[in-house]
Amino acid sequence: TKLRIDENTYVYDLTEQKRNSYKDTDYVIMACILKHFAETTIKISNYHIVDGTTFYYIHVTVGKVNWMVQHRFKEFVELNDKLVTGHGISSDLLPPKKVLGNRNPEFLVQRQHLLEIYLQKVLIFLRFTMCREFVEFLDFNKYDIIYLLQDISNDFYDRGEAILATSTVHEFTSLDLYAITERLKLPCPSSDNVKKKFDFSHVLDFCSQLQSLIVRPRKVFGFIVKYQASWLKFESCLKGSQSATTVSKIDHNTSIGTSNIVPENLKFDLNAFRSLKSFKMYGINAENICDAGLLRQTITQLSVHSTSTTQINQILLCDCIHKTDQTDATKCWNELTTANFSSNCIQSIDSTIQLLPKLKTLILDRNRITTISNLKHLPYLSSLSLCENYIADCVDCHLELGNLKTLKLSQNRLTSLIGFRKMYSLVTLDVSCNQIASIDEVDYVAGLPCLEELILTGNPVSGIVDYRQRVLSRFGDRCTELYLDNEKAEGSEIDMALVLAALKQSEAKPLLLQTSFVNENCGISVACGEIGFQTGECDVSSTMRRFLKLLACIHMCLGADILMVTMGGTKSHKIPFIELARGLIPRGHNVTFLNGFIADIHEIGLHEVTPTGLIDYIQNFTNWDLVGARMRGDLPVSVWDVLRYPFEACNAMFEDAETKELLNQKFDLLILDGAFPECSMGLVHKFQVPFMYINTVGFYTNTLSLAGNPIPYSVTPVFYSSFTDDMTIVQRAINIALYEFMNICHTISMSVLQQVLRKHVGELPNVYEMSKNVSFILQNGNAILTHSRPFLPNVAEIACIHCKPANPLPKDLEDFISASGDTGFIYVSMGSSVKAANMPEHLRLLFINTFAQLPYQILWKWEGPMNGATEIPPNVKLSRWLPQQDILGHRKLRAFVTHGGLLSLFESVYHGIPVVSMPVFCDHDSNTAKAVQDGYALKLDLETLTSDNLLKGIIKIIHDPKFRQAANFIQYYLIDIFGILIISMYIAIRFIRYLTKRYSTQPKRIKDKIN
Question: Boundaries of each PX domain copy (predicted)?
Fold first, then answer.
């Protein structure tokens, strides 16, 4: 069946043909024309014209194996010329050329038949010694044992020695290994006296010297090789397999190229590899190895990844028909010291692990393991990694892991550390991203004498106030030697930890001194006297506890005073700042947040300063009809509005009494919004402290370029355009013009703003010069979510810093969603900047009519009253506010209809939800273009939107699986590969901590320090 991919690309679905080829055999292996010449056929089934060029589709069948190639008539002529001159083929076999009428259907059918006869005659003529020209023309060198090995032999003849000299690692496909295995069984000599470079002996010689072998089902490139482990869990995401008892399997039944050869069916041995020390397999079950006897005696490192393997015995007893948990000494892997079985479906550690008597390192990440067992028979085991499994309890681990030095259990389900209390040899313990909530759990590992590194990041306990100091205090004097969350304690952190440790010790062991103090002990007597005597006797332990608590309170006042400022005109600018504050406050910092929106965040330790003048100005400025302007084809925001906003908003802020009061305070660090940061330069000049940027909701090039970061216009689309980084020459020219226009407007606006600042804070340097002194920049982006950028060392990406797992929905919302049954629901929100209530009446009716036709429940964020509420269909629920991330994380959500805001798109892929985007203004077009490029979004233009377009768009995004697959794929890279839950906040906190500790007197640039 012919399938159309785009206007110029067609592919053929060979499913039916493959299905027919399976009728007479359980599986299809590999072609061998020497054995199956009598069953070899060549047919030209059809043709197709693409851009005026006719392609003929040739189907080759050798035994049960078949494949398809396509060629133009010109390529037939070139082949014939080579065969005539080099191999004695008659020149009359090929049908003649035709200049006129060569696209006539009748002529093309006739030529198709004649070309088929031509190929069949050539095949018969060359049946004993097929020449390379004919072999490569019909792809025999890709699917036939003999000719595939000729290519490999030729490669090793040319550069085999160079490969072995520069690297001991080489990669084969399962097809290559199957061909080698079967070739050794054929009654043919390994040498070729005619063409030495095709000698099979070159392959044997290379294999016998190779020390490290990697095997894959097929050749892969780029990030697929780097992150091969992702395929298993990605498949799991698509199938919704998240329970410990459910096993997801990778589909290995995808054939190779255009053939019906399935990698999973290719059995091979490794007897040609006599010097192997390391063996790795990706995406191939170990049971494909039909003889592992030689492997067991030689290799020291074994890796099996991305397979459907559920038991370890399927790997270690791969060549045994009957697999049991009883160990057989003859099956021991005598030299193996490192085993890596990550990214499989292993459910338990069975007793066959005893077949690895010298094992030192065992890695079982990303499996389905629930308990640690059967490891007590591995006396040399020193490192164990079980990250991303389903382990909830570790009971008396010392009985299984008595000599272990490194244990990694991140991203499991642990709630307690009690099982590690007797692991006295443990040096490194990683329990990050579990469910440990109590600081008292640290006591179980604090007494381990060898423990040097403890990682608790991502647990609920890491969010408590003074988390680091309180954890370190449990280790007493040893806190100076401990690395907690990859950072060594130092300075005031150690002092605080020692104070808390002393306080805890005094509470645990009360000591009463039964004596009266005399005047000589005036210091103590006064202290005791102030606290109080008890019948002439002083309770020293009580006094000490109160004194230590006083010291602890004093220390809590020693955190940095941080001022965060955003001049952004939409509330979405606030969100990254709030999340950053939530990360800073538990670490003892005092955070003040200056913004132009009504204070609505109630966090202990966060003080919001909201100047009334700035609030009123922003409310008046943003009282716009963005959707209506977009639908009319007008500019949503005029050039004059863009010019005047920075200096008018700045003047409104500084004239307010709250801002003037703020100027009398002192701060240690300023964190500024990268959008319109120039007004905040007045605060930097006033306080004379270091400052840094956080680019909240867009890629602002001004702040980056002034800091010395390169901004190549050829691959950096301006943030308010619909271009991607893959621009044509015309788009690049337009992009440069837009940048230059933006720079001119910005320069004009800044000349006025400079005068505003002088009016309020006095003489100060040029704001551009001050901006160059930025210490660090946090960019709200990521190479997975946004376009890749070149960044200097003083720039770090913190995309999704605000993303979080979903919580249960309120009962009214859950009841509304439940009414849909298994059909699911759709979420509609146009964000904080675009007020849906201000949309034109005809667009409102368009939405209502479309939603009424959908078989889904609709949750619609609607900020204001709606006229004609009786028109709302029963499947639609309106609300002024909705918990967006909790909704996006709901298992019944089918699609998200939104405006293309950056934070909304980040949240969508974080929760794996496909998007229908209708961009309105600013960076919405750019964000949507990137989302469409990544495959998880569908764009609809408001200018041409109809009810039919919207209906079809929503149906397509739900029912076409490629959109959800793309969203799930990015979701997995974000959470499991990149670790977005941890890394974004960790990077931000780390550099803020660096600034507050080392740059407390005057602005510095981290870039200079690093260089």
Answer: 34-145
Is 990 inside a domain boundary?
Answer: no
Domains: count for the chain: 6
Residue 596 shares a structural domain with residue 711: yes
- Check whether residue 618 and residue 758 sit in a common domain: yes
Q: Which of 432, 553, 418, 423 is nearest to 483 (CA)?
A: 432
How far apart are alpha carbons 345 and 367 in whole angstroms? Answer: 5
For 14-64, strand residue ranges (E) read 40-50, 53-62
Say if residues 547 and 539 touch (Cβ distance below 8 Å).
Answer: no
- Identify the CATH number of the domain in which residue 463 sits: 3.80.10.10
| 501-547 pLDDT per residue, tens | 777 766 655 443 333 333 333 333 333 333 333 334 444 455 555 55
Read out DSSP for 849-902? HHHHHSSSEEEEE--S--TTGGGS-TTEEEES---HHHHHT-TTEEEEEE---H
Q: Other C-beta atoms within 10 Å of 861: how many?
A: 21
E strands, 225-323, are 268-269, 278-282, 289-291, 301-305
Angle between helix 902-910 and helix 961-972 axes, rounded to 10 deg = 90
Task: Establish if 858 belongs to a structural domain.
Answer: yes
Q: Which of 722, 917, 734, 893 is nearest to 823 (CA)?
A: 893
Residues 422 and 379 in one domain: no
CA distance 118 to 139: 17
Task: Check if the beta carbon of residue 898 is closer than 8 Å to that of residue 904.
Answer: yes
Q: Taking the CB of residue 457, how many other CB atoms lie within 10 A of it?
A: 21
CATH number at residue 851: 3.40.50.2000
Q: Token pair 């036709």 is at which residue? A: 853
Taking a C-beta distance cutoff of 8 angstroms, is the pair 258, 143 a contact? no
- Comparing CA positions, the residue from 983, 672, 969, 674 lying closest to residue 798 is 983
3-state SS assignment for residue 845: helix
Could you tell me the mean pLDDT of each successive run of 10 residues in the chain, 1011 residues long? 36 37 50 81 89 89 91 92 89 82 83 91 84 91 89 89 85 90 80 72 91 84 39 44 36 73 86 91 87 87 91 88 66 92 92 92 94 90 93 85 90 92 92 90 92 89 81 86 84 77 65 38 35 40 58 60 91 91 86 91 85 90 80 80 90 93 92 92 92 83 83 87 89 92 90 92 91 90 87 90 89 91 91 76 89 93 67 88 93 93 93 94 90 94 91 93 91 78 82 74 42 37
Specify whether the CB–CB gap between 119 and 45 falls below 8 A: no
Cβ atoms of 886 and 806 closer than 8 Å = yes
Q: Which of 73, 167, 162, 78 is nearest to 114 (CA)?
A: 73
How far from the centroid of its chain's Cα atoms is residue 336's Cα?
A: 33
Are 884 and 954 in a shared domain? yes
> What gap in Å lies between CA 984 and CA 991, rounded to an integer?
11
Q: Are 417 and 357 members of one domain?
A: no
What is the spatial distance between Cα 213 and Cα 530, in angstroms, rounded to a whole number? 76
Q: In Å, what is the CA distance from 294 to each residue of 277, 307, 317, 498?
A: 11, 23, 13, 57
The parent domain of residue 634 ranges over 561-797
As a whole number of angstroms, the distance between CA 970 and CA 854 comes to: 28
- Cα–Cα distance between 60 and 73 in angstroms, integer? 18
Domain boundary among 739, 772, 797: 797
d(CA 100, CA 204): 54
Q: pLDDT at position 754, please?
A: 93
One domain, residues 672 and 565:
yes
**Is 0.90 topped by the overall pTM?**
no
Alpha helices by DSSP H, listed for 633-765, are: 639-654, 657-662, 681-687, 701-706, 729-761
Q: Phi and psi dihedrals of 496, rounded to 5?
A: -65, -40
> Can you list the positions of beta strands (E) in 409-478?
428-430, 453-455
